[in-house]
Amino acid sequence: MMHLRIPGLACVCLVALSAGLCADDFGDFTGQVVLDGEIPTLPLLVKKGDAAVKDAAVCAAQDLVDESLVVNEKNKGVANVVVYLQRAPSKIHPHLKMPAEAKVVFDQKACTFMPHVMVVNTQQKVQVISADGVAHNTRSAPVRNQGFNFIVAPNDREGVDVSLPIAESLPMKLTCDIHPWMAAYWMVVDHPYAAVTDADGKFTIKGLPAGEHKFIVWHERPGYINGRRDPLDVKIEGGKATDVTIKVLATKLK
């Protein structure tokens, strides 16, 4: 693809074999989710050395923190917030039509799901494995995809592959019935425009078509921060990055 820039005119794309899109047709969306208020203190899920816990030698080998709210003390960035388009846009960047990886890994270590929140494309498989010396079961009852409940054997690094061919409207919850404090969430999408905030509360969504978009912002404690009735309106400009700060009241996350 060649990009021809002419003063005073829009970008013209010359494509030899098939219809193409200009670089200026797409832009990036970056941002940070920040807590507004005091950081709540959550009790431990499991205290180190608690002999009453199931499989204590593994599950109580260390303190297990509650990952339902993870806030960076230095900048108050909120981790594990999902930012996503509810539906695929009419245009998708050609480099993003297929996921970079055909498979994503979902692990279990110290009786904790890892990662706690992740995005899964409908074209990907999830490989559910375990680094623990005890058995776990992984169970979910998504709205649109088929539910599942299976055992992952101790130290199973091959695990079980899960396919989720239908996009979900909100993240689906994963649990382990053997160790009931374990929980995680998968956001299943049929497009590349979704992200989970990192330890600083930051996220990046690349290659969005230029124009107006309505984003859903979700966290497991309150549910929707910005839902379908009050989405986050974002204007993407071609060839540029749009950056936003999303503030969430601490009272909403308690």
Structure in words:
The protein is mainly β. It has a single domain (27-39, 71-248), classed as Immunoglobulin-like (Sandwich), CATH 2.60.40. It contains two helices and 19 strands. The protein has helices spanning 56-59, 250-253, and strands at 2-4, 12-14, 26-36, 82-85, 103-109, 112-114, 117-121, 125-128, 136-140, 148-152, 160-163, 172-175, 183-189, 194-196, 202-209, 211-219, 223-226, 232-236, 241-249. The strands form six sheets. Strands 4, 14, 16, 17 and 18 form a five-stranded antiparallel beta sheet that branches. A hairpin with a 7-residue loop joins β12 (172-175) and β13 (183-189).
Number of beta strands: 19
> What is the CATH superfamily label?
Cupredoxins -  blue copper proteins
Structural class: mainly beta
Measured between the Cα atoms of the first and last residue, the distance is 51 Å
| Radius of gyration (Å) | 21 Å
Low-pLDDT residue intervals, each spanning 5 or more residues:
1-19
Number of helical stretches of at least 4 residues: 2
β content, as a range?
35-45%
Structure characteristics:
41% strand; Immunoglobulin-like; 3% helix; 19 strands; mainly beta; 2 helices; 254 residues; 4-stranded mixed sheet; 5-stranded antiparallel sheet
How do the helices and strands line up, and which of them pair or pack?
Blueprint: E1 2-4, E2 12-14, E3 26-36, H1 56-59, E4 82-85, E5 103-109, E6 112-114, E7 117-121, E8 125-128, E9 136-140, E10 148-152, E11 160-163, E12 172-175, E13 183-189, E14 194-196, E15 202-209, E16 211-219, E17 223-226, E18 232-236, E19 241-249, H2 250-253
Parallel strand pairs: 3-19, 5-8, 7-13
Antiparallel strand pairs: 1-2, 3-15, 4-14, 4-16, 5-6, 8-11, 9-10, 12-13, 16-17, 16-18
